[in-house]
Design brief:
The protein has a single domain (2-145), classed as Dehydroquinase, class II (Rossmann fold, 3-Layer(aba) Sandwich), CATH 3.40.50.9100. The chain has a 5-stranded parallel sheet, sandwiched between helices. It has 5 helices and 5 strands. With 146 residues, the protein is α/β, with parallel strands linked by helices. The longest helix has 16 residues, at 129-144. Strand 3 (69-73), helix 4 (82-91) and strand 4 (95-99) form a beta-alpha-beta unit. Helix 3 runs parallel beside helix 4. Bound molecules: 1,3,4-trihydroxy-5-OXO-cyclohexanecarboxylic acid. 1,3,4-trihydroxy-5-OXO-cyclohexanecarboxylic acid (DQA) binds at residues 10, 73, 75-76, 78, 99-101, 103, 110.
């Protein structure tokens, strides 16, 4: 079974970017954590990042038939992207929304997620651990086939 982890804009800067909010762990280190846990669980993970909204849309479209579920930290596109929302909705691929920070405890413009309503669930506020919770969440969706 394969899962697709998608990371949106500026997440390539993790480690250096606003460490008071996002911590000092880099995206490469998060990927190592995710791959280790996935290997223990016998699951294959493809872990990608793009600053381009269109590339993320294309990857969601292409995920159908190849991946059992998507785990996405859409970064700022979370709050703006009807295109990402439509891609998740159009493909129907089970998707888990994740964030490092608690978006509901931050600026008001971060409280609304464009993709939340078409995702199966949302995890936020656990720092890098949000990714491991996202992995667990995606697997529970697949196992219970809801
Ligand atoms: C984020 C939260 C978003 O509001 C922000 O634009 C990001 C990161 C998070 O992981 O906490 O880029 O998705």
């Amino acid at each position: 079974m394969k899962l697709l982890f998608l990371n949106g804009p500026n997440l390539n800067l993790l480690g250096k970017r606003e460490p008071g909010i996002y911590g000092k762990t880099t995206l490469a280190q998060i990927e190592v954590m995710v791959q280790k846990r996935a290997a223990e669980l016998g699951v294959a993970v493809d872990f990608r990042q793009s600053n381009s909204e269109g590339e993320l849309v294309t990857w969601i479209q292409q995920a159908v038939g190849e991946f059992a579920a998507v785990v996405i930290n859409a970064g700022a596109y979370t709050h703006t992207s009807i295109a990402l929302r439509d891609a998740i909705s159009a493909t129907g691929i089970p998707t888990v929304e994740i964030h490092l920070s608690n978006i509901h405890a931050r600026e008001e413009f971060r409280h609304h997620s464009m993709i939340a309503a078409v995702c199966r669930g949302q995890i936020c506020g656990f720092g890098p651990h949000s990714y491991l919770l996202g992995l667990d969440g995606a697997l529970s969706l697949i196992k219970t086939a809801i």
